[in-house]
Amino acid sequence: MKNSTRLIGMLLLVMFSVNAQQEKGIVGLTNWLTNWTEFNPNKVDYGEANEILAGYITQDTKLYKKNIYELQGNVYIANNVTLTIEPGTVIIGNYESNGTLIVTKGAKLIADGSETDPIVFTSNRSTKKAGDWGGIIVLGNAPTNRYGNAANVNYELDPSLSSYGGNDSNSDSGILRYVRIEYAGKKVKTIGNLNALLLAGIGKKTILDNIMVSYSAGNSFEIDGGELSVNKLVSFKSISNDFKFNYGTQCNITNSLAVRSSYLSSTTGSRCIEVASYTKKEEVDFTKNQTLVTATNLTMVNNSNNLVNDIQTGLIKEAIYVGENTTLDFKKTVISGFNPAILLNSNIYINDENLKKIKLVETYFNLCKGNIFSEYNSNNEDLENWYGNVAFFNVYSKAENQETFIDFFNSKIPDYRLRMGKITASNED
């Protein structure tokens, strides 16, 4: 009996120890990136398409794992119908016609893969590159901060099928779970790059969980308006932003990961997270909710063998950019290897009222050249004093990535969970 009690006690001690080590950044008793992710998609042969998807899907349709499908041009799920994709199915975006899947307002996409059989969207080119095909656009009926609630996605789409926004916060656009999106974000003439996954006006009943975007030329994830929760999202080596929030979205994001490369960035620069309430002030109604992002257990890391050199040579910029008239609530987040960690828009006046809208609690700042600055202002003493208050429990470190994370340079299945035992905290900038 004593031995059994002792064994149970030891097991509990191990479990509590693991949880204590992983309480900041992405968490899990095991590495949840195992099985369903792919960090070397260029080495995977997905085969040739034997079925074509084109034009308009106007009746409930199912795609099967036994086939490989090719998206040709803009493919619309219309007329409030549902497209269901079987676990393990591969859908290839056509390069020449800019293959793009659009889930119109009122329609649903049920792409519900599994940990051992994820659904994959990828490029049809033999040598794959970022921006080979369009991406996935999901348009819902939840509120935005735009006048009249509604807006159109401007990517040369059918104007009658590209609107989003409405009054239904609980609207349901379907399920994306255990899904990979690779090499998306093709450029559309004068408009710019499509996003790998654009979620516009998405409601609470939509399920978004375990989604990996790799090598996107546009934003990996863009969320415009809507009211939603997302979990276990992965952005890997995007050229543009990893996560962009805009137009009054009320978003709760948990246990998610952004891995940047010093050598991949757009001409205007790229960040792990950009939070805005509008692109132009005249677009939005300030009597409505402006953008609110609640982020818990995020890990943002620059994948570099020489962070100090990359920062000194200007290859790395801020991890997070915060626009005016937004609210950001960060908890238990890791930011490793940026210049600086966080940058506030120059129009944000530094006072108690505004700083209370930008919450940073139990944040782990590691090897950043400065932690939080106001744009165009090299004096960040007031900001550092505010967020350095012991009541916020923020931690500062100067450890290399391989010492900070459990298995950082594993090229097949890295483990980006925090390895607390090897980190020495420091208050130095």
Topology, element by element:
Blueprint: H1 2-21, E1 51-57, E2 61-63, E3 68-77, E4 82-85, E5 90-93, E6 100-103, E7 108-112, E8 119-123, E9 135-139, E10 151-152, E11 163-164, E12 174-182, E13 187-188, E14 192-193, E15 197-200, E16 207-214, E17 221-224, E18 227-236, E19 243-246, E20 250-260, E21 273-275, E22 292-302, H2 307-312, E23 320-322, E24 327-331, E25 334-336, E26 342-344, H3 352-355, E27 358-361, E28 364-366, E29 372-374, H4 381-387, E30 395-397, H5 401-404, E31 405-407, E32 415-418
Parallel strand pairs: 1-3, 2-4, 3-5, 3-6, 4-7, 5-8, 6-9, 7-12, 8-12, 9-15, 12-16, 15-17, 16-18, 17-19, 18-20, 19-21, 20-22, 21-23, 22-24, 22-25, 23-26, 24-27, 25-28, 26-29, 28-30
Antiparallel strand pairs: 10-11, 13-14, 31-32
List keywords for this structure.
single chain, about 425 residues, mainly beta, 26-stranded parallel β-sheet, two-stranded antiparallel ribbon, disordered C terminus, signal, T9SS C-terminal target domain-containing protein
Structure description:
The chain has 429 residues and is mostly beta strands. The chain has one domain. 10% of the residues lie in helices and 36% in strands. It is built from five helices and 32 strands. The strands form four sheets. The protein has a 26-stranded parallel β-sheet that branches. A two-stranded antiparallel sheet has the order 10-11. It is globular. The C terminus is likely disordered.
